[in-house]
Specification:
The protein is an all-alpha fold. The protein contains three helices and no strands.
Length: 103
């Protein structure tokens, strides 16, 4: 896989993550203030991860290095971190939500 194809694929994945974050934020807004405070740090962490990944992908696209496996590893690690934090947040919200919240 070349860097251009990888970046295009990651951009599509980031777009999907941004949509998930929008939905997650809306769900958090429906919680009471006490419950909302408990997940705000996770939301902030997720937004930081999204921004970081977007910047790394933008850098790869602009620089187009011949050896980009270190950047790929960082982006892939960010994806894993984001998925983990997202699932943790959904589980926490589920404790306070009156109905099930699909991920």
């Amino acid at each position: 896989m070349n860097v251009i194809d990888y970046c295009k694929g990651m951009e599509m994945e980031l777009t999907a993550w941004k949509a998930k974050m929008y939905d997650l934020t809306r769900k958090v807004e429906s919680l009471g203030s006490k419950e909302r405070e408990k997940v705000l740090q996770n939301i902030q962490d997720l937004n930081i991860l999204l921004t970081d990944m977007q910047e790394r992908i933008e850098q790869l696209r602009n620089e187009c290095p011949t050896e980009w496996s270190p950047q790929k590893k960082e982006i892939d690690r960010g994806t894993v971190d984001m998925r983990s934090k997202y699932e943790e947040t959904l589980n926490h919200i589920g404790k306070y939500a009156p109905v099930s919240i699909p991920g």
